[in-house]
Structure formats: C-alpha cells, structure tokens
C-alpha cells in the first residue's frame, strides 16, 4: 500500500496525553512518521496502513478523537 497522510483532531489536555499517543504510534507497524501538536489538538500520521487502523490505535489510548481526514 502507498504511503498516506492522515490528520486527526484529538482531545489532549497534557503532555501525558500526547505521550500516550506517541508511544502507541511508535509501536504501530506501518506508521512511518507522526507529529503530535498539543496546542492544535492535532495528530498528523504518515502511514502505509489504512486510515481506520490508525484511528483504532489512537482510540485505544482512551483519547477522544473529534474528527479526522485523509490529507493525501
């Protein structure tokens, strides 16, 4: 599968929240890179796995995902 970029709007209140997402994404096979912005409440992920798989991984952290989209 080709690499795609996904953007998620995730409710994060502290560095612990963003850290939990960071740890999960680092361990996820198929995620090539990710950028977490606590200020913007946004997670950008480059991956070769489907959008729904990445969404499920982020949701597993217990954080609320307010929305998301496939950027490219």
From TrEMBL:
GO terms for molecular function: copper chaperone activity; metal ion binding. Coiled coil: none annotated. One of its GO terms (biological process) is copper ion transport. It comes from the Eukaryota. Keywords: Chaperone, Copper, Copper transport, Ion transport, Metal-binding, Transport. GO terms for cellular component: cytosol. Residues 3-66 form the HMA domain. It holds the Pfam family HMA. PROSITE patterns: HMA_1 (PS01047), HMA_2 (PS50846). Belongs to the ATX1 family. PANTHER family: COPPER TRANSPORT PROTEIN ATOX1. This is Cytosolic copper metallochaperone. The lineage of its organism: Eukaryota, Fungi, Dikarya, Basidiomycota, Pucciniomycotina.
